[in-house]
Design a protein that fits this description.
381 residues, alpha/beta, seven-stranded mixed sheet, five-stranded parallel sheet, 10 helices, 14 strands, 27% helix
Length: 381
């Protein structure tokens, strides 16, 4: 299915008043900037082509490929000296290869004397690993350090999993929002959306859902409880050091008895009976929780169920599970390539966000304010 372009807009000059941005077509030979794609796969370059079409420039000439021993090689085919370089990198299923492609291209441009190197990474990988989990690591912080070391001086991304991730970087990060595009889809593509209720899949996502509900003037419902918990306390270090070790001296403090955390079965806080339920989230990857939520909402009387998310990773058996579930439609943006998943599941729809990414590139190169892209955007989006 083709990606929706609301009204057939093909350039930034002919946008609806709701999403119109200033635009000046620029000649690539005089503009002082280049736009490259760091992807080696054809499917992942689609977003880069859409962005360059909107900007009225050609995609930079470069070759990114895997050698026989699986090493990544990048060959930039034109001069970048003294110019602003934008690297568009969408993240396919092979996340680690995409990261290496981005790092190697950034370093190649840095050593070729590019003036500024701006990474356009709509979905920032490893963003879920942004908190310390027992003996794990904050991988997102590690990736931020690697990007800075490779030569990036700025990043444009969209709907970071946690906004605090911006603090991991030593250079500016523009965290754009997809909510205006998803809200426009709700208003234009969901019949009788006034009879809908915005649903938060968990209390942690209630603020995002509330922001949507307030702008759409709709009610809010929250799902509470889970079928399982992702963190296991089976090996949390309580028996360390081993009991067999003999020790002398202080035996340790007597701590209060810690109550085990037990989540109740999924319940709905709010009325969804006879309503359209629209579940809001930033990422949809493993869909088991969404499928379980849809079943509960159906039992509570919701007659249609939509899922709206920015990043449609849709891993593993997600397309099949969605197709067999009570979910009527899953709406995601094209920040992540998912054409194969759409072929497997007609319920998946795509909203094009290349417009705002192109405008961000134009504004950064021209030194214009980015505040215009965040007008009417709530902090909790």
């Amino acid at each position: 299915m083709p990606i929706r372009r609301f009204g057939g807009h093909k350039s930034l000059a002919s946008l609806s008043p709701k999403l119109s941005y200033g635009y000046t077509k620029m000649n690539i030979s005089k503009s002082g900037y280049r736009v490259f794609s760091a992807n080696s796969s054809t499917a992942s370059t689609e977003l880069a082509k859409r962005i360059t079409e909107r900007l009225g420039v050609e995609l930079g000439k470069s070759v990114v490929f895997q050698e026989g021993n699986r090493e990544t090689k990048v060959d930039v085919k034109e001069s970048v000296r003294g110019q602003d370089i934008f690297i568009i990198q969408t993240i396919p299923r092979d996340v680690n290869t995409a990261i290496m492609e981005l790092l190697i291209m950034a370093y190649a441009l840095k050593t070729s004397c590019a003036k500024n190197i701006i990474g356009v990474i709509p979905y920032f990988p490893y963003s879920k690993q942004c908190k310390m989990r027992k003996r794990g690591s904050i991988v997102c912080k590690l990736l931020a350090s690697m990007l800075a070391k490779a030569g990036l001086t700025h990043i444009i991304t969209m709907d970071l999993h946690q906004k605090e991730i911006q603090g991991f970087f030593t250079f500016p990060v523009d965290n754009l929002r997809a909510s205006p595009f998803l809200i426009q889809y709700i208003q234009e593509e969901i019949p009788d959306y006034r009879n809908a209720v915005i649903v938060a899949k968990s209390p942690s996502s209630a603020k995002r859902a509330q922001s949507y509900a307030e702008r759409l003037r709709l009610g809010l419902a929250v799902l509470h409880g889970e079928a399982h918990h992702s963190e296991s306390d089976m090996a949390d270090g309580r028996q360390s050091p081993p009991l067999s070790r003999t020790s002398t001296g202080h035996t340790g403090l007597e701590l209060p008895i810690m109550m085990a955390k037990e989540k109740p079965p999924i319940s709905v806080v709010g009325d969804v009976g006879g309503r359209i339920a629209i579940i809001i989230d930033d990422i949809i990857d493993d869909v088991e929780d969404f499928v379980a939520a849809a079943e509960i909402l159906k039992e509570r009387g919701a007659y249609k169920i939509y899922i709206m998310a920015t990043h449609g990773l849709l891993s593993a058996e997600a397309p099949r599970l969605i197709e067999e579930s009570a979910i009527d439609e899953v709406v995601v943006t094209n920040t992540v390539p998912h054409e194969i998943q759409k072929l497997q599941c007609p319920k998946i729809k795509t909203v094009d966000v290349s417009m705002i990414l192109a405008e961000a590139i134009r504004r950064i190169h021209n030194g214009e304010s980015m505040a215009y892209l965040f007008r009417n955007i709530a902090v909790d989006d």
